Structures are given as C-alpha cells and as structure tokens.
Amino acid sequence: MRDILERSEDPHKSNLFASFAAVLIPNAAKQYSEDLEAITALKQIQKSARWIMSDRLHELHPLIWGHAMEAFDNQARIASIDTIFKQGCEKANQVFVSLFGDQMLKGNALIFICNQAANPNPTRSGANHLVCPLVPVVSA
After folding, report:
1. 26 to each of 90, 105, 125, how far by Cα in Å?
2. Lowest mean per-residue pLDDT among 45-54, 77-86, 108-117, 128-137
3. How many Å separate Cα 41 from the centre of its chain?
4. Count of domains observed in the chain
C-alpha cells in the first residue's frame, strides 16, 4: 500500500486505503479468529491506517468511509446518500480518535478544518460527495 500511495497524490485512493485498513480489515479479522497467519497479515494491514491517515490523507471523502462500513458492498441497502455521508463522517472521526487519542490525552487537540483559503467553497465531486481538504491543527 505504501508504494502505491507514495506514487499517487490521489486523495480518493488515500481515502479508499485508509478506510479499507481502518474499517474493513478489523471486521474481516473477526472472521479469521482461528487462523493465526491470516490474523497476522490483517493486523499488519490494519496498522497501515495510522500512517495513511497522518501522512497521506489530505481530504476526507465521507461516502467512501460510509461505503467501507458496508464492506464496499454495492448491493447494500442504504436509507439515503445523506445517511451514508453522515455515517462516513462519524466513522472517520471515530478512527481519528482511536488512532490519535493518545496525543489528545496528552493535552493536544487534533482538529481538522475545511481549508477556506485553499478552498473557500467545499465542492461536490463524483456521486454527490463532499470533498473538503483537511488541515491538521495540533495545539497544546
């Protein structure tokens, strides 16, 4: 994954890989609880979520995160695009807290805001999903 992402500046790919590693893999690991080799491989993929989210994720695409919650099942029934969008935002936030919560407990705040200077109006791109650049602000 690292090789692919280091050769690409595509935020869509970064969101796909981050949500795959942080959402889909932990759920898949539950199915392979008896297979130590599979668990080891899945944990290694899951660990990549941290560096992807800290080094490569510059935009948040909530629909990708919401789709990951449905195991990227294109046949999954969803109530609405707004519902999956909201669920994707909530899941991405949960993952950020789980991965960077230790920094928050030390008194730091990890805040992602829409970069108004670079993008005064968040855009809709693709199938009705909001793309908002992430700008990390860490404070003590």
Report:
1. 17, 24, 29
2. 128-137
3. 20
4. 1
